[in-house]
Structures
1.
Amino acid sequence: MRCSPSGCGPATFSALAARFNASRIVARDALRTLEALGIVEIRMGKGGGARIAYGNPRLFAEALAVQLDLTGVSVAEIMDAQRAIETLGAELAAENATAADIEKLRRLLREAEAAIGDLDEFTRLSRDFHRAVAEASHNRVILVQLVSLDMCPGRAAMLPRRRSWRGTSWKFTPSLPT
């Protein structure tokens, strides 16, 4: 690794192998494992090598969703967790939302009201609204948890099977602070 006062340059397979007295193949496999985990980024070519990766919340959410699925969490457990996460997210959004966040929420509510007869579009807008509330909380942990629950394969069982919301009796009443 090439280091200077401003930080270290990329680590090459050969440099890491020499530093840890391992073969180049072992160093490459170790770095590929770290890359798959999102810990390092590997670039090939001139100036290439392994660098510490920036955090990737999407990768973390995907990994959490996979682990939840592998542990066999039930739809009821997902819904309980989602309810708890969204409750805290809404509370924090009420405290931390910017004017832009509130406008986005209002826009999503207007679009959802207009799409009430289209199940697929209404479902997408509903998901976007819930995610926008989590984003308005300005808490990345809440957002990542909500996204990971949304990615769980078991959630497909929770989607409505009807093609239209026409005829439903509940009233759509948006109420956000002015």
Note: The longest helix spans residues 75-96.
2.
Amino acid sequence: MIFRVAKCPSCSRRSHVEAPKKRSNISPGICRCGVAMKWMSDSWYIRVRGGTCCYPTFNQAEEEHGAVIKNVAEDKSFLNRIKPVSWDDAEKRLLQELNERNQPRTVTFYEGRLKTLKAAFGKKMINKISREDIDDYVTSRLRLVSETSVNRELTTLRRLLLFAQKRKWLFENPMKDYKMFEEKERERVLTEDEEEKLYTACLDKRAPDHLFPIVITARETMLRKTDVLTLRISEIDFEDGVIRKKVVKQRRGKEEVI
């Protein structure tokens, strides 16, 4: 990573800010105390095997950074010093962190996709997963599932590899700049005839009694399946005819009136 050092003029806090751009007039951001930080110098830095090297221009730092990555990739003795971590250990550590920082639904999302990924990568050490392995995985999965499903699995794999990279279990992330599939928005809705057939099937004697209320609620509120199935009586205001549902998004619960 190429970075610059910024300092807060108020609290003197220092921060390493990634600087992939050549322009020096880019703001380093805002400090935790609310004051705009300032660059300490016009120098650019790169990390080399635990140390730091300083360069007067971005071009020099970028050139040296590319050379370092190439040399390290060819240096087998250095790669062998990276802590070998199995897929199972990395998965276990990641799920522990997710449980501490995320809602149960988010954890369930990752658990399901990690199980699928484990079938392909479970026997490999984390630092042995290559870009070619990922390409082969994508090719095989596209025979079974949609591009959208593959994107979700690749997102999970990227999260795991970033988690491993931060802990120095691998040097270069093979998922870096990996191109995902472009997803198309869903535009189709049920026709009146299809709605009628759906409601008729739900009211059939062979259908369970709770199916029709679930379908009607989902159709009229556009809530997700999980939100409909976890709906409570206390969240329904029968007098005003509204549902006040606490929908969890991005680690924060937000109450939405429907």
Note: The first strand starts at residue 2 and ends at 7.
3.
Amino acid sequence: MPDPSRNLEPRVAQFRIDLRAIARWISARSPSRLGLTIANAFIGGLSLSFRTWELLVLTLVLQIGMLPLMARDFHRITLAAPLVNLAAVPLTSAIVPIGFFALGIRIVFPAVGQIVAAPLSWLTLALLHIVHWFSKFPRWSYRIPRPPVWLLVIFFVLAALIAVTMRVSFPWKRAARVVLCLGLAFCSIVIALFPLAPTWAAGKLELTVLDVGRGDSLFVVFPPRQNLTYRWRWRLQRISRTRGTWRN
């Protein structure tokens, strides 16, 4: 039977060979009845660790790639997303197929569909509890202003150039990739921290809703550049008590 390691890169093949040698060494020094079990547990633990690390790296890459769009459209930076996805992605991968199965079988057998829907509701509640638990940590999610267009263009241009350098071979490929990655990291930090001055539109009325923790505030900028900050927490409470009726 051909060895699949022959088609891998030298470093990857060497890593697989080293893991096999470690597993055999552990199996040889374990009790005869437990040697194979211990070696399989060691390999299974490494496989789970690598899968978790792969999911974390993929989540970080997606988080960085979606950073400009999240800042532009939602004005929010979520630092807890990579950790939340470690639990959310496996749960979602189980919820989606079970949900389609429960929906399809309920049409034919309603009683069976209700039975299948029970574990589906448990998984969904677990997902919601995990997300809400992480959302309670302070400063793991914060709002930022909309980044300027030129910063978004630079970010995506650098990301496209990184993708090109990974496909094309040229003499200074490694140095170019390092420079582009550093530039992309710098743009990500600028988007996340936003150390830029706010933009003022002359002759226009601007209204910004601020989340101040215990309520919301309205920051109003009038055309002559006169500012007004208005807190309306007590009014929100009064609105909720009167079922949406505004009273002064």
Note: The mean pLDDT is 79.
4.
Amino acid sequence: MAKRRDPSGDVRDLLAATAQREGERVSARQLESWRQAGLVPRPTVQHLGRGRGSSSRYPADAPARVAAAARAVRAHRRLHVAALALFGQGQPLEEHVVRAAYRRHYEHIGRLAAPDPVAPGGGDAGPRDPWDFPSDPAEAAAMAIIGGVRRTRKGRRILRRARQIRDPNTGGPEAPESLLLSTLTTLARGALTGEADPSALQEMLLVTGMSEAMGERLGDLGPLSSPLDADEQAGLFAEVGPEAQRRAVEEASFAELARVRDRARDVLSFARAFTAVVSRTTGLDGAFGFGPIAEWAADADSDLAAAVVFVPILLAALSRDGAGVEDDLALCASYRTTFEALERLLDAIPASYAHLFAEGAAGVEALPDHERERLVAVIGPWLRANPSEEAAIMEPRGDAAGSAVEEAPGEAA
């Protein structure tokens, strides 16, 4: 067996810096594996002249990028999944790495939906995955998804929501896992055939919380969207469903992939801040449809979700209605800092005053004098101490997004 070579000086320096600055201990063997997979940067090699050899140097941000790769690999294990999570995070991966990762992702989905292989002579070669998949490709795909649902916080939330759905025949609660399996099987069959079952789409909107959240109202505000009839749902599924998403990813330029990735991150950040403000000021946890999106932003795998959920959906949606979707994305990006500032202001004031952000000037004026003085005594100094936050709250960069930002209590006071 050949003796393993000791790592070079630049590698030792990089590993030491990663441990000291980022708190991640990485071996030289791991670093080389990740470098070959394109997860970490390559060093710049400088030739020193005839007979003097060469030297190599890693970029200044290499320790942070190696640490990010270490966390992604630890969280997702498979290197192509880690690459997608790093891309979703905004790490500067090369195009061929991202393209290959997306191909592997969609190939994996295709294998889950494929029937079990048959061995020569007619014998069963066994399932492709640990579960005993049935021969129905759609049900096989659904069972593969169900296998991971119980192990995630998001999955457990979905199962809790599924328990609230009533069986139309008995009036009693549906068995949540049976309902989810049936719904996913029908949706998977639609993805394979290109034809959607509207009842399955409705069930999925219910168990994910989107249906209730999108129908929320607050006075004249809401709902986010009007209910779609069966034909509209089927058409929407065909235009932005799984096959349309895969095609949109393949056809997009790398610059467009990165641009939409950044927009997806804006949407997730906006949804998290908007939902926090709306739920604390109005009690509407669904935040007019942004609550379920905020759940993605709060999860540890939000970077992966940005890459494999939101980028494909947004690309497909842009192909369907480019101008309208671009306007919505621009609004999310514009109001992201406004709602992040409002959230921090809410943290600074007594919780009993949070409702004033929804009521606006009328709510402030209705306060007794001593209560108004108390509120001003808190908000005024906070705004003066945080001028950038004040600018974000007082001068939102987008159009009006509801009474929560039309006039902050500090401005009314």
Note: The radius of gyration is 26 Å.
